[in-house]
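Protein in question reproduced for absentees:

***
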Amino acid sequence: MADAASRLTTLAEELLGEPLPVRLRAWDGSEAGPAGGPVLVVRDRRALRRMIWKPGELGLARAWVAGELDVEGDLYALLDGLSGLLWERGEETRSLLDSVRDPKLRAAARALLRLAGPFPPPKPPAEEMRGRSGNRHSKRRDKQAISHHYDVGNDFYELVLGPSMVYSCAYWTEDGTLEDAQRDKLDLIARKLNLQEGDRLLDVGCGWGSMAIHAAREYGARVVGVTLSREQAAYARKRIADEGLTDLIEIRVQDYRDVDDGPYDAISSIGMAEHVGAVKYREYADTLYGLLKPGGRLLNHQISRRPEPDEEAYEIDAFIDAYVFPDGELSPMGSTLTTLEDAGFEVRDVEAIREHYALTLRRWVANLEADWDRAVRLTSPGRARIWRLYMAASAVSFERNRIGVNQFLAVKTPGSGVSGTALRPRVWNEKTG
């Protein structure tokens, strides 16, 4: 099977109808494709069997997690080069075999099958989410999904996220550190919520307690944080005790739909709404509206996607669904705004900060790569590889405007119409660029 790389490159280009934009190295040491850039390494031809059996993103993901695919060189550059094939061809890449009609392409597909070796394909990696039960976005199934993602060890998250333990987009200046940027993000949210001493703040999806601690320590707020992750809750409670803030903060393992001790002066929901799901998003907005006092504020910090020409055709990303955020769904920014308004909120401000998330993700990837061996020991080789690919690919997606992230400031404006919002709440730079 000499020169497998040339054969594989030729077959792939015949099936895809365009040149591969990256160099390829095969399991026999052969190479093909443009030189001078990153190299996609096919370490084992089992990767081909996975991709034939599950064409598109899931097959590639399984091969990556199993270590059968790797990258030598700049991972971001390779993902950027492949983005048109991976993300922007839509239905064209859904099946390499079912869509083949031309005799030449059928011959190429048969040759690829021979090159892949004997079937059936290997079993999916152990890190793949399986055994989900219950209806999508039911309380039971949401708890399973959250546990899959977050209950993988707080030490691992410390390694990736750094001391701030904030797992959402930071807010950057030109020369700030990750810790500076995360602190600035938490303070931006507190200021948008106009937190005052003694205010009751509900932090929905509180993570490891960073927003709760900041609001209590810096603003004197009384905070209830809710999470479905027991590991997060235990970690947050210890941090709060170490800070001497137990009289101001309560952390609950609780579904936000079960919170019944309103009204609250303010609600923060930071990177949580992505887990809610399209069919439950109105319920989410209604619930938070009902928990606020008249004049209360919601800060909803949420990843968005670009609108689809046919929204009914939207599908959850296969790799993210199987390995990262099971059942996670993204909504277009306009849909989120409309749902908040339909629930009764007055949306007072929307700030788009997608470039900030690309910077954040690149810093998290750097943290992971700098302590790779420890990350593997704390989880598994497959889990570490999942995180490296997920975060790097997400950074490229933010940079290419495939996805964004937005902060919605919404007010439960009373009948008087007095929103409590300043006439000019923002300070803009006089010049840009």
